[in-house]
Design brief:
By secondary structure, the chain is of the alpha+beta class. It has helices spanning about 25-30, 50, 70-85, 105-110, 115-125, 185-195, 265-290, 295-305, 310-320; strands spanning about 40, 60, 65, 95, 130, 140, 150-155, 160-165, 180, 205, 215, 225-230, 235-245. The longest helix has 26 residues, at about 265-290. Bound molecules: fe (ii) ion.
């Protein structure tokens, strides 16, 4: 499936404007899609089949694969440099740009491109769609100004699936590697409680052959980070989100963290639409397959399950005490 689960909105949220004078995205010119050589599964990270059964896919991470042609890589780097002026900080990431797909049509059209989405379906081995929330499309990370800081601290993502693409040339950098921990979130939590990073012999830093290469990640299940740079350099990466189109599975989001980083003018309507999409789909499934039964507990549970994401969104939107998740607590 390559259709959008929710169409990209026609109108821009307050505070966003389209760039002028950028090239139009042309998949025939800007893409050079290739399959990754290897894919690793969550079982190899230590997750049980039961834990995996309600997740979007059993795929954990792929080896780097090519997404952009050399023309595409040059064009995306220009877009990223233009977006840099809109960078913000949060507890986890010193310099990032959210909502770039509300500013750059090139970035938007790359992130929702049907042939790229088709490739992601093959890699994830399940039907996925570009993320329902445009803030999760085309997220950009930039080098921290403080070299002692990681580009992005050890964490798991607030969304289930994403690709991490090198936008600047990784060969030009000393450090700044994308790294992931071959272990579970629970193992990482135990380490974090002791103030420890993942053991070095269980950390993998994939080799990206150049700008425009990406990995596919089950970001909500695989603990990862953008490591610190050893020397100043232009390090730009782009994270593009996906959702499983199977809404019977777990939502696998931690939307509430976004209250700490995202513009409310965009966030709340996006979040509500995402919850509505999931609720609508689950209610439709109930309409189609609920059988006659005298057991009110079964029927009530089905109804409750159908609207669970909507109810959770309401509670979390009203929640005031929000803490950003990461595994480097005590280190700011
Ligand atoms: Fe991440």
């Amino acid at each position: 499936m390559t259709d959008a689960a929710i169409a990209f909105p026609d109108e821009l949220p307050a505070g966003f404007q389209w760039f002028e004078n950028e090239p139009a995205f042309d998949p025939a010119v800007h893409l050079a899609l290739e399959m990754p050589e290897t894919v690793t599964h969550l079982q190899e990270f230590g997750y049980s089949d039961k834990e995996i059964s309600r997740k979007a896919t059993s795929v954990a991470v792929s080896s780097p694969f090519r997404v952009l042609s050399s023309e595409g890589a040059v064009a995306l780097l220009e877009v990223a440099r233009s977006l840099r002026q809109h960078a913000i900080s949060c507890e986890r990431i010193e310099n990032m740009v959210r909502g770039g797909c509300y500013r750059s049509r090139f970035l938007r059209d790359l992130c929702i491109d049907p042939s790229l989405t088709e490739l992601m379906c093959e890699i994830y081995q399940t039907d996925v769609a570009p993320h329902t929330m445009p803030l999760h499309l085309g997220h950009m990370n930039f080098s921290p100004d403080d070299l002692s800081k990681a580009v992005d601290k050890w964490h798991h993502d607030t969304l289930p699936l994403d690709t991490v693409m090198m936008v600047s040339d990784p060969a030009s950098l000393d450090g700044g590697n994308f790294e992931y921990f071959v272990g579970t979130k629970q193992e990482m939590e135990v380490l974090a409680e002791k103030g420890l990073p993942p053991p070095a012999d269980r950390v993998v830093a994939p080799h990206f052959a150049g700008p425009g290469y990406a990995i596919a990640l089950h970001g909500n299940m695989v603990v990862h980070r953008g490591g610190p740079l050893n020397k100043p350099g232009e390090r730009i990466s782009m994270v593009n989100g996906y959702v499983s189109t199977n809404t019977a599975l777990d939502d696998q989001h931690r939307h509430v963290d976004l209250k700490l980083v995202d513009p409310p003018e965009a966030l709340f309507a996006e979040w509500a639409r995402h919850a509505a999409w999931r609720g609508k789909s689950r209610l439709e499934a109930l309409l189609n397959d609920l059988e006659f039964t005298a057991d009110h507990e079964i029927v009530a549970a089905r109804l409750e399950d159908a609207i669970a994401d909507v109810q959770q969104a309401i509670v979390e939107m009203k929640q005031n005490d929000v803490e950003m998740h990461h595994y480097e607590r005590g280190q700011k």
